[in-house]
Automatic annotation (TrEMBL):
Pfam families documented for this protein: AAA_lid_14, HTH_8, Response_reg, Sigma54_activat
SMART domains assigned: AAA (SM00382), REC (SM00448)
All copies of domain Sigma-54 factor interaction, residue ranges: 135-364
Zinc-finger found in the keyword field: no
Name recorded for this polypeptide: Two-component system, NtrC family, response regulator PilR
This protein's UniProt keywords: ATP-binding, DNA-binding, Nucleotide-binding, Phosphoprotein, Transcription, Transcription regulation
Response regulatory domain location: 4-118
Organism: Geopseudomonas sagittaria
InterPro entries hit by this protein: AAA+_ATPase, AAA_lid_NorR, CheY-like_superfamily, Homeodomain-like_sf, HTH_Fis, P-loop_NTPase, Sig_transdc_resp-reg_receiver, Sigma_54_int
Amino acid sequence: MAQRALIVDDEPDIRELLEITLGRMKLDTRCARNVKEAREWLAREPFDLCLTDMRLPDGTGQELVQLIQQRYPQTPVAMITAYGSLDTAINALKAGAFDFLTKPVDLARLRELVATALRLRSPAQPGDGSVDSRLLGDSPPMRLLRKQIAKLSRSQAPVYISGESGSGKELVARLIHELGPRSEQPFVPVNCGAIPSELMESEFFGHKKGSFTGAVEDKPGLFKAADGGTLFLDEVADLPLAMQVKLLRAIQEKAVRAVGGQQEVAVDVRILSATHKDLAGEVAAGRFRQDLYYRLNVIELGVPPLRERREDIALLAERSLQRLAAECGLDAAQLSDEALEKLKNYRFPGNVRELENMLERAYTLCEDDVIQASDLRLGDAPAPGSGESAGGNLTQIDDLEDFLENIERQAIMQALEETRWNRTAAAQRLGLSFRSMRYRLKKLGID
Protein backbone atom coordinates (compact mmCIF):
# COMPACT_ATOMS: atom_id res chain seq x y z
CA MET A 1 0.00 0.00 0.00
CA ALA A 2 1.38 3.41 -1.00
CA GLN A 3 2.23 5.87 1.72
CA ARG A 4 -0.08 8.84 2.00
CA ALA A 5 0.60 12.58 2.42
CA LEU A 6 -1.72 15.47 3.26
CA ILE A 7 -0.93 18.82 1.58
CA VAL A 8 -2.50 21.93 3.13
CA ASP A 9 -2.14 25.18 1.18
CA ASP A 10 -4.54 27.78 -0.19
CA GLU A 11 -2.39 28.50 -3.28
CA PRO A 12 -3.31 26.16 -6.19
CA ASP A 13 0.14 26.37 -7.83
CA ILE A 14 1.92 25.38 -4.59
CA ARG A 15 -0.49 22.47 -4.07
CA GLU A 16 0.13 21.32 -7.65
CA LEU A 17 3.93 21.56 -7.27
CA LEU A 18 3.83 19.53 -4.06
CA GLU A 19 1.41 16.97 -5.52
CA ILE A 20 3.60 16.39 -8.58
CA THR A 21 6.81 16.10 -6.55
CA LEU A 22 5.34 13.72 -3.98
CA GLY A 23 3.58 11.74 -6.70
CA ARG A 24 6.93 11.11 -8.36
CA MET A 25 8.10 9.75 -5.00
CA LYS A 26 5.23 7.19 -5.20
CA LEU A 27 3.10 8.86 -2.51
CA ASP A 28 -0.69 9.13 -2.61
CA THR A 29 -1.66 12.72 -1.88
CA ARG A 30 -4.73 14.47 -0.53
CA CYS A 31 -5.11 18.25 -0.66
CA ALA A 32 -6.81 20.73 1.62
CA ARG A 33 -7.23 24.48 1.10
CA ASN A 34 -7.71 25.43 4.75
CA VAL A 35 -7.69 24.20 8.35
CA LYS A 36 -11.32 22.99 8.15
CA GLU A 37 -10.67 20.71 5.15
CA ALA A 38 -7.43 19.46 6.74
CA ARG A 39 -9.29 18.48 9.91
CA GLU A 40 -11.84 16.56 7.81
CA TRP A 41 -9.13 14.64 5.94
CA LEU A 42 -7.27 13.81 9.16
CA ALA A 43 -10.46 12.46 10.74
CA ARG A 44 -11.22 10.40 7.63
CA GLU A 45 -7.95 8.50 7.03
CA PRO A 46 -4.41 8.04 8.40
CA PHE A 47 -1.44 9.89 6.90
CA ASP A 48 2.28 9.20 6.88
CA LEU A 49 3.14 12.88 6.43
CA CYS A 50 1.52 16.32 6.45
CA LEU A 51 2.87 19.44 4.70
CA THR A 52 1.10 22.65 5.70
CA ASP A 53 1.46 26.31 4.86
CA MET A 54 1.79 28.65 7.82
CA ARG A 55 -0.89 31.14 6.71
CA LEU A 56 -4.28 29.69 5.86
CA PRO A 57 -7.62 31.44 5.21
CA ASP A 58 -9.28 30.22 8.42
CA GLY A 59 -6.31 29.81 10.76
CA THR A 60 -2.62 28.93 10.89
CA GLY A 61 -0.49 25.92 10.20
CA GLN A 62 0.60 26.02 13.83
CA GLU A 63 -2.96 25.10 14.84
CA LEU A 64 -2.63 22.01 12.66
CA VAL A 65 0.75 21.16 14.19
CA GLN A 66 -0.80 21.26 17.67
CA LEU A 67 -3.84 19.24 16.58
CA ILE A 68 -1.69 16.54 14.95
CA GLN A 69 0.61 16.40 18.01
CA GLN A 70 -2.39 15.79 20.25
CA ARG A 71 -4.53 13.45 18.13
CA TYR A 72 -2.29 11.92 15.45
CA PRO A 73 1.23 11.81 16.96
CA GLN A 74 2.30 9.11 14.49
CA THR A 75 2.02 11.68 11.63
CA PRO A 76 5.06 13.96 11.16
CA VAL A 77 4.07 17.46 10.04
CA ALA A 78 6.34 19.95 8.27
CA MET A 79 5.65 23.68 8.05
CA ILE A 80 6.01 25.76 4.88
CA THR A 81 6.86 29.37 5.72
CA ALA A 82 7.62 32.56 3.80
CA TYR A 83 11.31 33.22 3.19
CA GLY A 84 12.88 34.97 6.15
CA SER A 85 10.18 33.93 8.65
CA LEU A 86 12.67 32.20 10.89
CA ASP A 87 10.83 33.05 14.11
CA THR A 88 7.68 31.43 12.71
CA ALA A 89 9.60 28.29 11.77
CA ILE A 90 11.22 28.07 15.20
CA ASN A 91 7.83 28.46 16.92
CA ALA A 92 6.49 25.64 14.75
CA LEU A 93 9.39 23.40 15.75
CA LYS A 94 8.77 24.18 19.41
CA ALA A 95 5.09 23.29 18.92
CA GLY A 96 6.10 19.86 17.59
CA ALA A 97 6.64 20.26 13.84
CA PHE A 98 9.00 17.69 12.35
CA ASP A 99 10.82 20.25 10.17
CA PHE A 100 10.17 23.29 7.99
CA LEU A 101 10.59 24.52 4.42
CA THR A 102 10.79 28.09 3.14
CA LYS A 103 9.18 29.52 0.02
CA PRO A 104 10.08 29.36 -2.79
CA VAL A 105 10.22 25.62 -2.16
CA ASP A 106 13.55 24.00 -3.00
CA LEU A 107 12.54 20.65 -4.54
CA ALA A 108 15.76 18.88 -3.57
CA ARG A 109 15.27 19.98 0.03
CA LEU A 110 11.60 18.92 -0.15
CA ARG A 111 12.48 15.42 -1.34
CA GLU A 112 15.14 15.15 1.36
CA LEU A 113 12.66 16.20 4.06
CA VAL A 114 9.97 13.79 2.83
CA ALA A 115 12.41 10.86 2.68
CA THR A 116 13.57 11.55 6.24
CA ALA A 117 10.02 11.88 7.57
CA LEU A 118 8.94 8.60 5.99
CA ARG A 119 11.75 6.78 7.80
CA LEU A 120 10.22 7.63 11.16
CA ARG A 121 9.15 4.69 13.25
CA SER A 122 6.12 4.60 15.49
CA PRO A 123 6.48 6.89 18.51
CA ALA A 124 8.71 5.27 21.10
CA GLN A 125 7.04 4.70 24.45
CA PRO A 126 9.21 5.21 27.51
CA GLY A 127 9.53 2.02 29.49
CA ASP A 128 8.62 -0.36 26.66
CA GLY A 129 12.24 -1.25 25.85
CA SER A 130 12.42 0.92 22.71
CA VAL A 131 14.16 3.73 24.62
CA ASP A 132 17.72 2.48 24.99
CA SER A 133 18.45 0.65 28.24
CA ARG A 134 21.83 2.38 28.46
CA LEU A 135 20.05 5.35 30.04
CA LEU A 136 19.72 3.70 33.43
CA GLY A 137 17.50 4.76 36.29
CA ASP A 138 13.86 4.64 37.31
CA SER A 139 13.69 7.91 39.25
CA PRO A 140 11.04 10.47 38.19
CA PRO A 141 13.65 12.75 36.50
CA MET A 142 14.92 9.84 34.39
CA ARG A 143 11.44 8.67 33.41
CA LEU A 144 10.70 12.22 32.24
CA LEU A 145 14.02 12.39 30.38
CA ARG A 146 13.30 9.15 28.49
CA LYS A 147 9.87 10.46 27.53
CA GLN A 148 11.39 13.71 26.22
CA ILE A 149 14.07 11.85 24.25
CA ALA A 150 11.43 9.67 22.58
CA LYS A 151 9.50 12.78 21.54
CA LEU A 152 12.50 14.79 20.34
CA SER A 153 13.82 11.88 18.28
CA ARG A 154 10.82 12.36 15.96
CA SER A 155 11.72 15.98 15.22
CA GLN A 156 14.47 17.62 13.21
CA ALA A 157 14.57 20.63 15.54
CA PRO A 158 17.96 21.64 16.95
CA VAL A 159 18.20 20.53 20.58
CA TYR A 160 20.42 22.13 23.22
CA ILE A 161 21.26 19.57 25.93
CA SER A 162 22.14 21.26 29.20
CA GLY A 163 23.66 19.57 32.22
CA GLU A 164 26.72 19.27 34.40
CA SER A 165 29.93 17.55 33.35
CA GLY A 166 29.67 13.78 33.54
CA SER A 167 25.85 13.69 33.63
CA GLY A 168 25.51 11.85 30.31
CA LYS A 169 24.80 14.58 27.72
CA GLU A 170 26.52 12.74 24.86
CA LEU A 171 24.59 9.55 25.64
CA VAL A 172 21.33 11.55 25.49
CA ALA A 173 22.38 12.99 22.12
CA ARG A 174 23.19 9.50 20.78
CA LEU A 175 19.78 8.20 21.86
CA ILE A 176 17.97 11.08 20.16
CA HIS A 177 19.86 10.19 16.99
CA GLU A 178 19.43 6.42 17.25
CA LEU A 179 15.68 6.59 17.88
CA GLY A 180 15.09 8.97 14.99
CA PRO A 181 14.88 8.70 11.19
CA ARG A 182 18.62 9.39 10.79
CA SER A 183 19.65 6.34 12.83
CA GLU A 184 21.20 4.58 9.81
CA GLN A 185 23.34 7.63 9.04
CA PRO A 186 26.45 8.91 10.90
CA PHE A 187 26.43 10.36 14.40
CA VAL A 188 29.47 12.64 14.59
CA PRO A 189 30.41 14.00 18.05
CA VAL A 190 32.90 16.84 18.29
CA ASN A 191 34.37 18.41 21.43
CA CYS A 192 34.53 22.10 20.50
CA GLY A 193 36.93 22.83 23.35
CA ALA A 194 39.51 20.33 22.12
CA ILE A 195 40.10 21.80 18.64
CA PRO A 196 42.83 24.47 18.34
CA SER A 197 41.25 27.71 17.12
CA GLU A 198 43.50 27.94 14.05
CA LEU A 199 42.30 24.52 12.85
CA MET A 200 38.58 24.95 13.57
CA GLU A 201 37.43 26.07 10.14
CA SER A 202 39.29 23.22 8.46
CA GLU A 203 37.96 20.67 10.99
CA PHE A 204 34.35 21.75 10.59
CA PHE A 205 34.17 22.59 6.88
CA GLY A 206 37.12 20.70 5.40
CA HIS A 207 39.90 22.03 3.16
CA LYS A 208 41.28 21.68 -0.33
CA LYS A 209 44.71 20.30 -1.07
CA GLY A 210 47.32 23.07 -0.97
CA SER A 211 45.04 25.60 0.72
CA PHE A 212 47.58 26.02 3.53
CA THR A 213 50.89 24.56 4.67
CA GLY A 214 50.34 20.93 5.58
CA ALA A 215 47.17 20.49 3.49
CA VAL A 216 48.58 17.61 1.45
CA GLU A 217 45.18 16.26 0.41
CA ASP A 218 41.51 17.19 0.37
CA LYS A 219 39.69 16.79 3.68
CA PRO A 220 35.86 16.70 3.88
CA GLY A 221 35.37 18.09 7.41
CA LEU A 222 32.89 17.27 10.17
CA PHE A 223 29.77 18.66 8.47
CA LYS A 224 30.32 16.46 5.42
CA ALA A 225 31.16 13.49 7.64
CA ALA A 226 27.75 13.92 9.31
CA ASP A 227 25.84 14.52 6.05
CA GLY A 228 22.47 12.79 6.28
CA GLY A 229 22.96 12.21 10.00
CA THR A 230 23.58 14.15 13.20
CA LEU A 231 26.39 16.51 14.25
CA PHE A 232 26.76 16.75 18.04
CA LEU A 233 28.57 19.90 19.17
CA ASP A 234 29.76 19.15 22.69
CA GLU A 235 31.04 22.03 24.84
CA VAL A 236 29.73 24.44 22.21
CA ALA A 237 30.28 27.39 24.60
CA ASP A 238 34.03 26.98 24.01
CA LEU A 239 33.78 28.06 20.36
CA PRO A 240 35.61 31.35 19.70
CA LEU A 241 33.41 34.21 18.42
CA ALA A 242 34.94 34.18 14.92
CA MET A 243 34.00 30.51 14.52
CA GLN A 244 30.51 31.13 15.91
CA VAL A 245 29.79 33.46 12.97
CA LYS A 246 30.84 30.81 10.43
CA LEU A 247 28.92 28.07 12.21
CA LEU A 248 25.75 30.20 12.24
CA ARG A 249 25.99 30.72 8.47
CA ALA A 250 26.51 27.00 7.83
CA ILE A 251 23.44 26.14 9.92
CA GLN A 252 21.26 28.81 8.30
CA GLU A 253 22.31 28.09 4.72
CA LYS A 254 22.57 24.30 5.17
CA ALA A 255 25.78 24.53 3.17
CA VAL A 256 29.53 24.69 3.82
CA ARG A 257 32.55 25.91 1.89
CA ALA A 258 35.89 24.19 2.44
CA VAL A 259 38.99 26.24 3.19
CA GLY A 260 40.47 27.02 -0.22
CA GLY A 261 37.25 26.01 -1.98
CA GLN A 262 35.29 28.22 -4.37
CA GLN A 263 31.78 26.86 -3.98
CA GLU A 264 29.44 26.06 -1.12
CA VAL A 265 28.28 22.44 -0.89
CA ALA A 266 24.83 21.57 0.48
CA VAL A 267 24.77 19.47 3.65
CA ASP A 268 21.86 17.84 5.47
CA VAL A 269 22.64 17.52 9.17
CA ARG A 270 20.65 17.69 12.36
CA ILE A 271 22.42 19.80 14.98
CA LEU A 272 22.48 18.74 18.62
CA SER A 273 24.63 20.75 21.05
CA ALA A 274 25.62 20.67 24.70
CA THR A 275 27.75 22.39 27.30
CA HIS A 276 28.17 22.23 31.06
CA LYS A 277 28.29 26.04 31.13
CA ASP A 278 25.29 28.37 31.46
CA LEU A 279 24.90 29.28 27.77
CA ALA A 280 22.44 32.10 28.46
CA GLY A 281 25.00 33.51 30.90
CA GLU A 282 27.70 33.27 28.23
CA VAL A 283 25.43 35.27 25.89
CA ALA A 284 24.85 37.92 28.57
CA ALA A 285 28.62 38.15 29.13
CA GLY A 286 29.22 38.69 25.40
CA ARG A 287 31.16 35.45 24.95
CA PHE A 288 28.50 33.70 22.87
CA ARG A 289 26.48 35.13 19.98
CA GLN A 290 22.81 35.60 20.73
CA ASP A 291 21.71 34.74 17.17
CA LEU A 292 23.61 31.43 17.28
CA TYR A 293 22.18 30.73 20.74
CA TYR A 294 18.63 31.03 19.36
CA ARG A 295 19.47 28.75 16.42
CA LEU A 296 20.93 26.04 18.66
CA ASN A 297 18.49 26.39 21.56
CA VAL A 298 15.21 25.84 19.70
CA ILE A 299 14.40 23.18 22.29
CA GLU A 300 16.32 22.78 25.55
CA LEU A 301 16.63 19.40 27.21
CA GLY A 302 18.01 19.28 30.73
CA VAL A 303 19.92 16.21 31.97
CA PRO A 304 19.56 15.88 35.77
CA PRO A 305 22.70 15.66 37.93
CA LEU A 306 23.23 12.44 39.87
CA ARG A 307 22.52 14.11 43.23
CA GLU A 308 18.94 14.81 42.03
CA ARG A 309 18.30 11.10 41.37
CA ARG A 310 19.99 9.34 44.28
CA GLU A 311 17.57 6.41 44.07
CA ASP A 312 19.34 5.43 40.81
CA ILE A 313 22.80 5.14 42.39
CA ALA A 314 22.42 1.47 43.43
CA LEU A 315 21.41 0.38 39.91
CA LEU A 316 24.12 2.48 38.24
CA ALA A 317 26.74 1.04 40.61
CA GLU A 318 25.59 -2.54 40.02
CA ARG A 319 25.73 -2.20 36.24
CA SER A 320 29.11 -0.47 36.37
CA LEU A 321 30.59 -3.26 38.51
CA GLN A 322 29.15 -5.92 36.18
CA ARG A 323 30.78 -4.17 33.22
CA LEU A 324 34.14 -3.95 35.01
CA ALA A 325 34.00 -7.65 35.88
CA ALA A 326 33.17 -8.59 32.29
CA GLU A 327 36.10 -6.52 30.98
CA CYS A 328 38.50 -8.17 33.41
CA GLY A 329 37.06 -11.69 33.11
CA LEU A 330 36.54 -11.83 36.87
CA ASP A 331 33.63 -12.15 39.27
CA ALA A 332 31.61 -9.00 39.89
CA ALA A 333 32.16 -7.20 43.19
CA GLN A 334 29.36 -6.23 45.54
CA LEU A 335 28.95 -3.03 47.52
CA SER A 336 28.67 -3.36 51.28
CA ASP A 337 25.66 -1.65 52.85
CA GLU A 338 27.96 0.95 54.39
CA ALA A 339 29.64 1.64 51.02
CA LEU A 340 26.28 2.04 49.25
CA GLU A 341 25.06 4.40 51.96
CA LYS A 342 28.23 6.43 51.59
CA LEU A 343 27.69 6.73 47.84
CA LYS A 344 24.11 7.86 48.36
CA ASN A 345 25.28 10.60 50.73
CA TYR A 346 28.01 11.90 48.40
CA ARG A 347 27.31 14.96 46.22
CA PHE A 348 29.03 13.64 43.05
CA PRO A 349 30.24 16.89 41.46
CA GLY A 350 31.44 14.72 38.54
CA ASN A 351 28.11 12.88 38.28
CA VAL A 352 27.84 9.45 36.60
CA ARG A 353 31.36 9.68 35.16
CA GLU A 354 32.78 10.25 38.66
CA LEU A 355 30.77 7.31 40.03
CA GLU A 356 32.17 5.01 37.33
CA ASN A 357 35.75 6.16 37.92
CA MET A 358 35.33 5.79 41.69
CA LEU A 359 34.01 2.24 41.35
CA GLU A 360 36.79 1.26 38.95
CA ARG A 361 39.36 2.36 41.53
CA ALA A 362 37.50 0.64 44.38
CA TYR A 363 37.17 -2.56 42.33
CA THR A 364 40.94 -2.85 42.13
CA LEU A 365 41.38 -2.16 45.87
CA CYS A 366 38.67 -4.34 47.40
CA GLU A 367 39.18 -7.79 48.89
CA ASP A 368 36.95 -10.87 48.60
CA ASP A 369 34.87 -9.12 45.91
CA VAL A 370 33.21 -6.84 48.47
CA ILE A 371 33.72 -3.07 48.20
CA GLN A 372 33.88 -1.54 51.67
CA ALA A 373 33.33 2.15 52.42
CA SER A 374 37.07 2.63 52.92
CA ASP A 375 37.74 1.35 49.36
CA LEU A 376 35.79 4.30 47.95
CA ARG A 377 38.40 6.76 49.32
CA LEU A 378 35.75 9.42 49.86
CA GLY A 379 36.99 10.77 53.18
CA ASP A 380 34.11 11.82 55.41
CA ALA A 381 32.23 14.17 53.12
CA PRO A 382 29.17 15.77 54.77
CA ALA A 383 25.82 14.45 53.65
CA PRO A 384 23.87 16.64 51.22
CA GLY A 385 21.45 18.96 52.94
CA SER A 386 23.29 18.68 56.26
CA GLY A 387 24.03 22.42 56.19
CA GLU A 388 27.82 21.95 56.12
CA SER A 389 29.78 23.66 53.42
CA ALA A 390 32.83 22.13 51.81
CA GLY A 391 34.96 23.76 54.46
CA GLY A 392 32.38 23.79 57.25
CA ASN A 393 33.58 20.67 59.09
CA LEU A 394 37.27 20.05 58.63
CA THR A 395 37.60 18.02 61.84
CA GLN A 396 36.55 14.92 59.88
CA ILE A 397 39.35 15.31 57.31
CA ASP A 398 42.53 13.50 58.30
CA ASP A 399 44.94 15.58 56.20
CA LEU A 400 43.91 18.93 54.71
CA GLU A 401 46.77 18.94 52.17
CA ASP A 402 45.82 15.51 50.87
CA PHE A 403 42.16 16.51 50.78
CA LEU A 404 42.86 19.64 48.71
CA GLU A 405 45.32 17.79 46.46
CA ASN A 406 42.68 15.16 45.75
CA ILE A 407 40.16 17.84 44.74
CA GLU A 408 42.76 19.47 42.48
CA ARG A 409 43.63 16.10 40.91
CA GLN A 410 39.95 15.33 40.20
CA ALA A 411 39.38 18.74 38.58
CA ILE A 412 42.46 18.41 36.35
CA MET A 413 41.69 14.80 35.37
CA GLN A 414 38.11 15.75 34.48
CA ALA A 415 39.28 18.67 32.33
CA LEU A 416 41.83 16.44 30.57
CA GLU A 417 39.26 13.73 29.89
CA GLU A 418 36.76 16.22 28.53
CA THR A 419 39.34 17.71 26.17
CA ARG A 420 40.71 14.30 25.11
CA TRP A 421 43.99 15.05 26.91
CA ASN A 422 44.63 18.31 25.09
CA ARG A 423 46.62 20.08 27.83
CA THR A 424 46.26 23.56 26.34
CA ALA A 425 42.47 23.24 26.10
CA ALA A 426 42.28 21.75 29.61
CA ALA A 427 44.31 24.64 31.02
CA GLN A 428 41.99 27.15 29.34
CA ARG A 429 38.96 25.37 30.76
CA LEU A 430 40.42 25.57 34.28
CA GLY A 431 41.48 29.21 33.87
CA LEU A 432 45.18 28.34 34.17
CA SER A 433 48.20 29.37 32.13
CA PHE A 434 49.91 26.53 30.31
CA ARG A 435 52.98 26.98 32.53
CA SER A 436 50.81 26.65 35.66
CA MET A 437 49.08 23.59 34.20
CA ARG A 438 52.42 21.93 33.44
CA TYR A 439 53.62 22.58 37.00
CA ARG A 440 50.48 21.02 38.52
CA LEU A 441 50.70 17.94 36.27
CA LYS A 442 54.30 17.39 37.38
CA LYS A 443 53.48 17.99 41.06
CA LEU A 444 50.56 15.55 40.99
CA GLY A 445 52.41 12.95 38.92
CA ILE A 446 49.87 13.02 36.08
CA ASP A 447 51.42 11.89 32.82
